[in-house]
Design brief:
Blueprint lengths: L3 E3 L4 E2 L12 E6 L2 E4 L5 E4 L2 H6 L5 E5 L2 H4 L11 E9 L2 E8 L1 H8 L5 E8 L5 E10 L26 H6 L8 H15 L1 H11 L5 H35 L8 H7 L3 H13 L23 H10 L3 H16 L1
Parallel strand pairs: 6-10
Antiparallel strand pairs: 1-9, 2-9, 3-8, 4-5, 6-7, 7-8, 9-10
Helix pairs in contact: 5-7
Length: about 325
């Protein structure tokens, strides 16, 4: 089962919390049922007890999701506290949190006002477990991996419509998203017998059957073409970032999920444009480990350190997987 890490929620730290509190601090990590991040992705906390059951050891509460963004590359990701216990409350998942002295200072000095959970989910958005939580200051979730750190002026930026999409809809290259949505809506209206008939009656004329079928075919073809172009665009910009050394190949699937929306794509492009290279040319394998060299890559060694796995055990497992992939 394919799993991705998502960081798309943000909550306020209780204003009444102080380091002198003697009662345990419980914070909501996942709301009940269906929920949506502000980057447009939808998720489902349909099995909260399974999320709790997957909790086997304390999870880190860090700053700005360093456990997810930095630790994989061997950078320091100090914890400000720990998620010590999980429980289900009315379908939501809550965590008992214990902050260390650094975390208490950051909160009581109001260095941070919000927190955000990181969770693992399947391809259809079903949450399966918590990964960590992070203190943050930007609750509008407008940065590249929906990491709750705002990018200035991002909401006011306009993303150009793809040339291929514009051509498929019979629009000019300067067409806007609204014009594209209107064009698709027109195709769908013409393709729906009831909507087309009602429209024709209202106008005093009718659409011939052949014309209606043509509109239906065009709508179906346009939607399929849009999906193909959209997927190709996602893969292209992520793979270009990998080739440029701006992101780790092992995180390719996570960034593809981020680029599944137009807003996420624009935010990812802005991030790549300003980010310094973090991966050298030897690791640009688009998520595939090097074959048969008997060595671990830097990001694999970092993962071993994070998960407390011996490098030789990781290498042995990787080589076994390579054998299976060749069968």
């Amino acid at each position: 089962m394919k799993k991705d890490v998502a960081l798309a929620l943000c909550f306020s730290i209780p204003a009444t919390y102080t380091q002198k509190d003697t009662d345990p601090l419980w914070l909501m990590m996942l709301p009940a049922g269906e929920f949506e991040g502000e980057d447009g992705r939808s998720f489902s906390n349909s099995t909260p007890q399974a999320v709790v059951d997957a909790f086997t050891k304390p999870l880190p509460f860090d700053e700005e999701h360093a456990s997810v963004l930095k630790a994989a590359f061997g950078d320091s990701a100090h914890a400000t506290g720990w998620l010590e216990e999980l429980e289900v409350r009315d379908g939501a998942v809550w965590a008992r949190v214990e902050f260390n002295s650094n975390g208490e200072w950051l909160i009581n000095s109001k260095a941070y006002r919000f927190y955000s959970p990181a969770f693992l989910h399947t391809a259809d958005g079903t949450v399966i477990s918590l990964d960590s939580a992070g203190l943050t200051n930007k609750p509008n979730l407008a940065d590249l991996p929906a990491l709750n750190r705002a990018q200035s002026n991002m909401e006011n930026e306009t993303v150009p419509l793809s040339k291929a999409i514009a051509q498929a809809l019979g629009l000019t290259e300067s067409a806007t998203d609204d014009e594209a949505v209107t064009a698709i809506g027109t195709l769908k209206t013409n393709a729906d017998p009831k909507l087309a008939l009602n429209s024709a009656v209202a106008k005093g004329d009718f659409v011939p059957k052949a014309t209606h079928q043509l509109a239906l075919n065009r709508a179906t073809t346009a939607e399929a073409r849009l999906a193909e172009i959209d997927k190709a665009d996602q893969e292209s910009i992520v793979d270009e970032a990998i080739e440029a050394g701006k992101i780790a190949p092992a995180n390719r699937d996570m960034y593809l999920a981020i680029c599944s929306t137009q807003t996420g794509r624009a935010q990812f492009a802005a991030y790549v444009a300003s980010a310094a290279p973090i991966v050298d040319s030897e690791t640009k394998s688009k998520g595939k480990p090097p074959q048969g060299d008997g060595k671990l890559e830097p990001h694999e060694l970092a993962m071993c350190r994070k998960m407390h796995i011996k490098p030789e055990e990781f290498l042995k497992a990787r080589q076994a997987q390579e054998v299976l992939d060749k069968q």
